[in-house]
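Protocol step 4 of 6.
Sequence for Transcription termination/antitermination protein NusA (Thermoflexibacter ruber) entered exactly as in the expression construct, tag removed. Do not edit the line below.
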Amino acid sequence: MDASTLIESFTEFAKQKNIDRPTMIRILEDVFRTMIKKKYHSDENFNIVINVDKGDLEILRYRQVVADDAEDIDPNTQITLSEAKKIAPDFEEGEEVAENVSIDGDFGRRLVQTARQTLIQKIKDLEKELLFQKYKDKVGEIITGEVYQILPNKEILLLDADKKELILPKSEQIYKDRFRKGDNVKAIIHRVEMINGTPKIILSRTSPLFLEKLFENEVPEVFDGVITIRKVVREPGERAKVAVESYDDRIDPVGACVGMKGSRIHSIVRELDNENIDVINYTDNVELFISRALSPAKITSIKIDADKGRASVFLKRDQVSLAIGKGGQNIKLAGKLVGLEIDVFRDQENPEEDEEDVDLEEFGDVIDQWIIDEFHRIGLDTAKDVLNMSRELLIKRTDLEEETIDFVLDILKKEFE
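Step 5 output, structure tokens:
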């Protein structure tokens, strides 16, 4: 393989990988200098000129002319006067001789083949590095990829517009997601890692940032910065709460995000497999913010213990279940949104409403007080309060064992038989 063929094949391969001309020349020069070092042990007295457009290569070796009887002559950096005169008869001692080194004749076939493989590998390594840098700068942006493989562990491999591989792990998928080969999937670039020299682009559909970016795409006021998203909390695929604030008093941030007849929010909800999204007007008034975060429940009063990071919320009986929400989602997300642990308590303003109910304290002779206190902690003060909540939710919201829950439920049920 001659120099022109080697350069042409490398240049064509590099262009396919979208490698720019200066980078191609730099890689070629690095590889040729490596070849020179292997053969001559040094490249300091060599000059390499490459023209990738024409496939031309010129390697010049510079040597100093020394006397024929000089001692310890270095054949790489020095040339005897008699040898120099064969090149040009007018050379004298002390002058510098420039000679062309032929890649075809002066380097062995094996060394040239090694150079060709090295060139290809360098381009592949560069391609990986460019891919890593490209996506590293795009972390936090939304991308759409095409599904081309679904692995047995439910991990999904996608291709971007340049046919580069993207990964959507099962842990970053909404549990209701169902994709097939060829589907277009929208996700956020979650993180980019370099593992054993290979870039891994990890996507996510469960990140709160994904929901935030969807709002940016659908709501011009958010994209323009007129409305800012203060915080997003999610139970992916189930429910989310988004706190928004407007820097323009003329713009209602909640109304702008929801859109006319819900037009803006609906497209986001569809993208997230019908995730229920509450858009909440942010305020620095903590009590008001808690009240808005627990919507649709109506709060009677709130007590905040800032030192303990807790808030006690009091509601009428028919509002307690609304505040807690399905599976405790509403109160859990509200707590994350406001940054406080929220405890719900039933308001005792109208004791006559409880004539047919029984206060838990009256079961103190058969139920330990610490168990009763645990029910109080989550806002359950009466027998019917406990019986109206599902067994699964009682287990989830309290720190009680399943056997203890079943024991209490059995006692309370007998009270009303």
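Step 6, annotate. The mean pLDDT is 87.
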